Amino acid sequence: MVKIKRELAQLQQQVIACTRCPKLIAYCRKVAQEKRRMYRDCEYWGKPVPSFGDPHAGLLIVGLAPGAHGANRTGRMFTGDRSGDFLYPCLYEAGFANQPTSRDRDDGLELRNCYITAPLRCAPPLNKPAPDELRNCQPYFERELELLADVRAVLALGRIAFDAYLHVVGQGKDFPPRSGFVFSHGASMNLPPGLPRLFCSYHPSQQNTQTGRLTAEMLQRVLHDIRDFLGSPITR
């Protein structure tokens, strides 16, 4: 356990120091300097955001990318913006977090049997990552999947997370055609032997939550399904 925790910590330090996408780094720094008026007294993180959570988690949550004034400000994924305000109460209600709030990276939040990552670690303009940016970040994602050996369920928050995860795990020649895996909220699917079960949810963006496309009850239902699955015996 100590070794895995140490290797994950080392990987996150590599993420924080990454400069593979100069345009993204420049954008994150620009946002951190200009700030949003309501956060003008805050010191922004302004660099790639590390993943975090339980190193022996059964659930891996895959998001999209840091928010410009959320994780890019606080330095922790889904922290300091409306997406986190929506996500963490649901995780708490389902038993995957010790508290329902996430304000900053020193607020005492701990994930339980859960780890949160994203295919892109820098905040992209308009929340739209470019294909080359996702490719540059992919080695970090791949290494996390190797280290998080106890994961039995993956929750993809949105289509980009769904596609990014399947792209990484589906590179082997024996993987079924990608056309056989269709993203839809509430869907879950078995992948080839040795891979976790994949669950799907709409991303908790304001665009989805404020329009009612994603409600707390909808996300909680998915999390409860995952909790029930993780409570089932491991089949080999």
Plain-language structure description:
The protein has 236 residues and is α/β, with parallel strands linked by helices. The protein has one domain: Uracil-DNA Glycosylase, subunit E. 39% of the residues lie in helices and 9% in strands. The protein has eight helices and six strands; from the N terminus they run ααββααβαβαββαα. It has helices at 2-16, 22-34, 71-74, 82-93, 131-147, 159-169, 206-209, 216-230; strands spanning 52-53, 59-62, 114-117, 153-157, 188-189, 197-201. Helix 1 (2-16) packs antiparallel against helix 5 and helix 4 packs across helix 8. The mean pLDDT is 95.
Q: Can you identify the CATH superfamily?
A: Uracil-DNA glycosylase-like domain
Per DSSP, what share of the residues sits in E-state strands of 2 or more residues? 5-15%
Radius of gyration: 17 Å
Strand ordering within the main sheet = 1-3-2-4-6-5
The gross shape turns out to be: globular
Largest sheet: 6 strands, mixed
Structural class: alpha/beta
Helix content: 25-40%
Q: What top-tier CATH class fits best? A: Alpha Beta
Total helical elements: 8
Number of strands: 6
Number of domains: 1
CATH topology label: Uracil-DNA Glycosylase, subunit E
- C-alpha end-to-end distance: 22 Å
Low-confidence region ranges: none
CATH architecture level-2 label: 3-Layer(aba) Sandwich
Mean pLDDT: 95
- The helix-strand sequence is HHEEHHEHEHEEHH
